[in-house]
Design brief:
Elements (H helix, E strand, L loop, with lengths): L2 H22 L3 H24 L9 H8 L5 H18 L4 H7 L2 H19 L3
Length: 126
């Protein structure tokens, strides 16, 4: 495995750990943001390992999946779409109170678990 790939994966692991800390601290929208970021970095690591080029400067998880040329199982694919749609409102909420209601403890716990599962699936693609 290339050194840059290892770095992307190390950052992905660090970010999912940060998501867990944010969740435990009740900072749920930031936990969602960090889940997205951790998956983005895992996909960028896979991109680098497979294509041997610097990954595109995008936050779109869907774009990264297509760029790498992999199709996740249906459950992971639906989750990627859901998390991709959550990226902007959790990163730049127009209405913080509304986002806090949407991304409550139950919802974010599920997102965190699915993120961990998806990252493991991505790592299995190496």
């Amino acid at each position: 495995m290339e050194k840059r790939t290892k770095e992307w994966l190390a950052q992905s692991d660090y970010d999912v750990d940060t998501a867990s800390y944010m969740f435990k601290g009740g900072r749920y929208i930031y936990a969602v943001f960090m889940c997205h970021l951790s998956i983005e970095k895992a996909l960028k690591g896979l991109y680098y390992e497979k294509i041997r080029e610097v990954p595109p400067k995008t936050h779109s998880l869907i774009h990264l999946l297509y760029a790498v040329g992999i199709s996740p199982p249906e459950n992971h694919g639906r989750f990627v779409v859901k998390l991709n749609e959550a990226s902007i409102p959790t990163r730049y909420p127009e209405n913080l109170v509304q986002q806090i209601k949407i991304y409550n403890e139950t919802v974010v716990y599920d997102i965190l678990l699915k993120t961990q599962e998806l990252i493991q699936w991505i790592k299995n693609q190496f």
